[in-house]
Specification:
Layout (H helix, E strand, L loop, with lengths): L1 H7 L1 H7 L20 E5 L2 E6 L5 E6 L4 E7 L8 E4 L3 E4 L5 E4 L5 E4 L12 H4 L7 E5 L4 E6 L2 E6 L3
Helix pairs in contact: 1-2
Length: 157
């Protein structure tokens, strides 16, 4: 019964096995898009979208409240990494460091190309193409790799 029920319905599993797990997250009034990327920045959840409008939204996990909805000057893409509590790096196209409190671009790596995000192996059935991305948020660094080279970028705050 239990195995058949859990395989039949994820709702059954969340109601009967994990009833107190999960969180209803308010992404803010005006957020009408699918979140294309997300990361944790300290005790905050940051979601981004590039669909109809380039934007990010911030949800505070401690207070369980929406903190900000910020329009961005350019699409962030789907790949991002938190750097400290007030910055994220977005990797699609030219990698950029965004300041969360203002939504402004604090730094940009014009000489790097982070490639295109939204790669879905289940759809494409192709191996990933360069540049390959490695993220190390614990040490505030990331790397982009090509068949003949690797570039490592370390950030200090």
């Amino acid at each position: 019964m239990w195995l058949a029920s859990t395989m039949w319905s994820a709702r059954w599993l969340s109601r009967h096995i994990f009833p107190r797990w999960g969180e209803n997250i308010d992404l803010g009034t005006g957020w009408e898009w699918q979140a294309e990327g997300a990361t944790f920045a300290g005790h905050r959840l940051v979601c981004v979208t590039s669909e109809e409008k380039a934007a990010l939204t911030i949800y505070d996990l401690d207070s369980r409240r929406h903190e900000a909805l910020i329009e961005l000057p350019e699409p962030p893409g789907s790949r991002l990494m938190a750097v400290g509590d007030d910055h994220i790096v977005v990797f699609d196209g030219k990698p950029r460091l965004l300041q969360l409190s203002t939504g402004t671009v604090a730094d940009r790596w014009e000489d790097l190309d982070g490639g295109k995000g939204l790669w879905q192996p289940s759809v494409n059935m192709q191996p990933p193409a360069p540049p390959w991305l490695a993220r190390d948020p614990g040490n505030c660094r990331f790397a982009l790799g090509w068949p003949d080279s690797v570039v490592v970028v370390s950030l200090t705050f």
